[in-house]
Amino acid sequence: MISLDFWQGIFNDVLGLNQPSPPLQEIIFAICLSFTLNLLIASVYKQTYRGKDFSQDYVHSLLILGTVVSVIVMVVKFDQVNAQATAFGIFAAFSIVRFRTDVSAARDIGFLFCAMAAGLGVGARAYVLATATTVLIAAIIYVFSRMDVFAPARASHRLRVRVTNDVDYDSAFRACFVQYLHDYDLISVESIQAGMMTELRYSVQLKEVTRPGEFVAALQQLNGNNRVMITSTGPSRVLSD
User: Fold this and answer.
1) What pLDDT, on the 0 to 100 scale, is given for residue 138?
2) 141 vs 10, 51, 104, 196, 233, CA distance in Å?
3) End-to-end CA distance of the chain
4) Nearest one of 158, 157, 161 to 227, comparing CA atoms
5) Alpha-carbon distance 15 to 12, whole Å?
6) How confident is the model at residue 139 (pLDDT cuts 50, 70, 90)?
7) Contact, 157 vs 217, CB < 8 A?
8) Which of 15, 59, 202, 228 would be a feasible disulfide site paired with 159, CB 3.0-4.6 Å?
9) Is pLDDT of 82 > 60?
10) Which residues contact 237 (CB under 8 A, 6 or more apart)?
11) 3-class DSSP state for residue 7?
12) Gyration radius (Cα) of the chain, Å
């Protein structure tokens, strides 16, 4: 029976992993491995994304960034003569990416770090470590997303109500809010339509999230059938009437 060490030795000889600097075949292998790992990260990002502004460019950026990081690390690691100057150049390049790139969601930043970590591991020739950690992290993120772990106990919503200027909204809506809401907070009051009406914006928590239509209808009876809109702050949910 052929041992695992035998196959590992053949693998090392074919790719030249025992050499002090990576040969061409190892460079090609590293780039392909880095791209594959970042493709896994990008796929998990797409499968677990719940927002409404999915960006194909961002997914492509994950693939490009992670793969390029591998190449950069190989250059710095094995070009000892110019390693210091190259390292400062890399730092400047990543500073430009940091300050010129608009990444609004903290989750997107996390995936960027995952892609960079995979690229760093492959570039440092830690192929087993990079592969194992990337697969494990991707699996954890996917499972947590499917199980909806850490979801809020109650869904929060944004409520917009238009009233005429003669309506005392503090007292007019209080009984309705008590009946349908767990909690509410007035965010803003805006004068609209040349000062003819007022738009109120609330952050609310419905007692029964499956009955937003009843809540909206009750509000419309109180505000003279003017516009009432309720939207979920959770991803992929819009509740309006």
Assistant:
1) 95
2) 35, 16, 19, 50, 21
3) 70
4) 161
5) 5
6) very high
7) no
8) 202
9) no
10) 155
11) helix
12) 27
- Give how far the C-alpha of residue 51 lies from the chain's centroid of Cα atoms, to the nearest Å: 9
- List, as one string, the DSSP characters of 83-146: HHHHHHHHHHHHHHHHHH-----HHHHHHHHHHHHHHHHHHTT-HHHHHHHHHHHHHHHHHHHH
pLDDT tens-digit profile of 196-210? 889 999 988 888 766
DSSP states of 158-224: EEEEEEETT--HHHHTHHHHHHHEEEEEEEEEEEETTTTEEEEEEEEEES-TT-HHHHHHHHHHHTT
| Cα–Cα nearest to 205, from 170, 178, 174, 236 | 178
pTM of the entire predicted model? 0.64
> Would you call 45 exposed, middle or buried from its count of C-beta atoms within 10 A (0-12, 13-18, 19+)?
buried
Residues 102, 104, 105: CA angle, nearest 5 degrees: 140
Only one residue has tokens 């010129």, namely 100
Q: Per-residue pLDDT tens for 184-199?
A: 888 899 988 888 889 9
Q: Give the position of tokens 């890399």.
A: 90
Give the closest residue to 215 by CA, choosing from 182, 186, 181: 181
